[in-house]
Amino acid sequence: MNQSLTLKSQEETEWIGKALVAQRQGKPALAFQAFQHAAHMPDTKGLAWFHLGNISLSQGDKDAARNAYATALERSPHFLSARINLGNLWYESGALQQAEDAYRKVIEHDPHSLEAHYNLAAVLTKQGRIPEAIVEY
Q: From CA 16, how far away is CA 23, in angstroms rounded?
C-alpha cells in the first residue's frame, strides 16, 4: 500500500475495519457513519474520505462525492483511485479541463494506468482533439 495511505492510529484502523464490515453486510448507513468517524480523526489520511465518496456516489450525491474525493486528495495527494473518481465526476458534469487535469496527474504518477489513459482519451475526443486522443487509446 502507498505509504501516504498508511493509517495513523489503531482507532482509525478499527473504525475503517468496522465500516468495511458494515459495507459487506449491506449496511451502507452504518458504513457511512463509521467512515465519517474515521475521516474526522486527527491526522487521518484519505482512505476514509475515499470510501465516503464512494458511498455518496452510490447514493447519487455527486456533490458530496466530489467533496469527499477532493478531501481524500488533500490528505493523500497520490491516492490515484480518488483522483480517477474525481476526474470521472468532472467528466460527467462537463468540466472537461478539470477531468483532463485529473487523468494527466494519475498518468504522471502511474504511466501504465489503462483507466487513466482511456479516460483521458475520452476527454480529448469530447474536446475534438482526436490526434491526441488516439495516442491515449
A: 10
Write out pLDDT tens, residues 86-124. 999 999 999 999 999 999 999 999 999 999 999 999 999
Question: What percent of the chain shows pLDDT beyond 90?
Answer: 88
Look up the pTM and report it. 0.88
Cβ–Cβ under 8 Å, residues 81 and 72: no
Specify the residue for cell string 473504525: 15
Cβ burial 7-35 (10 Å sphere, 16+ → b, else e): beeeebeebbebbeebbeeeeeeebbebb
Closest listed residue to residue 72, CA positions, set 59, 92, 58, 56? 56
- Give the chain's length: 137
- State the residue for C-alpha cell 474520505: 49
